């Protein structure tokens, strides 16, 4: 069998018009009746066939032969190459790939990865979680927190409530720590860090100064985030999702950096709606167990909603859209759930 084509010598972009002659065990490349290359078929490397492209033969010494006829397929080509080529030409296969690839990615990123994250966080050593929390705390302090201006008496009062709840719930005081900071960025807010530190802003403490039980409800909500390791889980999700996408799209260079940078990554993300609901449920259950009312939690959300709304009146027309995009359940949903 004779095949016309172009022969590229070793490490050269210049080619010679030649004829490849195929026998049972060898292939010879002939130019002007002179054999310029001879190789065993078993030593050949064949490129994967694609519609519209010729099958390229790569010889063991680095030279190449490309048929002039792009539709020509070598007789010794393996069946799996033919299967791939048929799939690439099949409209049904292309349609299936368009439909099922996004579905597969959705299942991996939104079902498999979160499920793995839930079970993987329990295997993390405490010192790793502590380091993640300190990295996050250092970053947030640098960009968004200022020293608290709350009177020492007011801080001590809230700290006493916090310690009392920790004792009642048998939570480790060496893990759960309370800090006060002033923050123009966060306003009236509180947040929990991976290693157990809970930050309350001056604005929140002042907003709920006359509603101490409402502030306790907020603190219990933040404790819920720590108890359920939400920040660690969402960091694990973020890292795993990045690795999955890197593997799928073939960019592995950044995978090693994921493990180094995940310590502060949760600071850039909100908790998911499910995690917020889980923390809400923890707060509501513990309020009842400590002798308070779930209405205290509703009072806290209402006060926060009024505070934030008064500062963001220009957003009222798009509130519904923002709630859809938000990682938190809507304020009204949380209030209704607490008052049930």
From TrEMBL:
Record's cofactor remark: Binds 1 zinc ion per subunit.
Protein name: Peptidase
Domain Peptidase M48: residue ranges: 153-339
GO molecular function: metal ion binding; metallopeptidase activity
Family the entry assigns: Belongs to the peptidase M48 family.
Any single biological process term in GO: proteolysis
Keywords on record: Hydrolase, Membrane, Metal-binding, Metalloprotease, Protease, Transmembrane, Transmembrane helix, Zinc
Membrane-spanning ranges: 92-110
Swiss-Prot/TrEMBL cofactor(s): Zn(2+)
Keyword Metal-binding: yes
Alphabetized InterPro entries for the sequence: Mito/Outer_Membr_Metalloprot, Peptidase_M48
């Amino acid at each position: 069998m004779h095949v016309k084509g172009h022969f590229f010598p070793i490490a050269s972009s210049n080619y010679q018009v030649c004829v490849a002659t195929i026998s049972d065990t060898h292939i010879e490349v002939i130019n002007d009746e002179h054999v310029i290359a001879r190789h065993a078929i078993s030593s050949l490397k064949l490129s994967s066939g694609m519609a519209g492209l010729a099958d390229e033969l790569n010889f063991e010494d680095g030279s190449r032969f490309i048929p002039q006829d792009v539709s020509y397929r070598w007789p010794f080509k393996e069946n799996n190459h033919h299967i791939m080529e048929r799939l690439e030409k099949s409209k049904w296969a292309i349609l299936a790939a368009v439909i099922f690839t996004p579905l597969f990615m959705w299942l991996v990123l939104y079902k498999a990865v979160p499920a793995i994250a839930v079970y993987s966080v329990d295997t993390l050593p405490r010192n790793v979680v502590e380091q993640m929390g300190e990295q996050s705390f250092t970053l947030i302090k640098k960009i968004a927190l200022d020293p608290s201006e709350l009177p020492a008496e007011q801080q001590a009062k809230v700290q006493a409530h916090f310690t009392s709840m920790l004792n009642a719930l048998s939570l480790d005081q060496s893990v759960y720590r309370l800090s006060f900071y002033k923050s123009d960025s966060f306003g009236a807010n509180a947040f929990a860090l991976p290693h157990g530190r809970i930050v309350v802003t001056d604005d929140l403490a002042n907003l709920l100064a006359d509603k101490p039980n409402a502030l306790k409800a907020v603190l219990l909500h933040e404790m819920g985030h720590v108890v359920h390791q939400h920040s660690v889980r969402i960091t694990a999700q973020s890292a795993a999702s990045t690795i999955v996408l890197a593997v799928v799209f073939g960019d592995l260079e950044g995978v090693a950096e994921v493990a180094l940078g995940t310590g502060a990554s949760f600071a850039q993300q909100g908790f998911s709606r499910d995690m917020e609901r889980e923390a809400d449920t923890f707060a509501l259950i513990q309020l009842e167990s400590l002798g308070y009312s779930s209405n205290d939690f509703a009072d806290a959300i209402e006060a926060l909603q009024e505070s934030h709304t008064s500062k963001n009146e220009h957003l009222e027309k798009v509130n519904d859209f923002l709630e859809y995009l938000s990682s938190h359940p809507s304020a009204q949903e949380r209030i209704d759930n607490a008052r049930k």
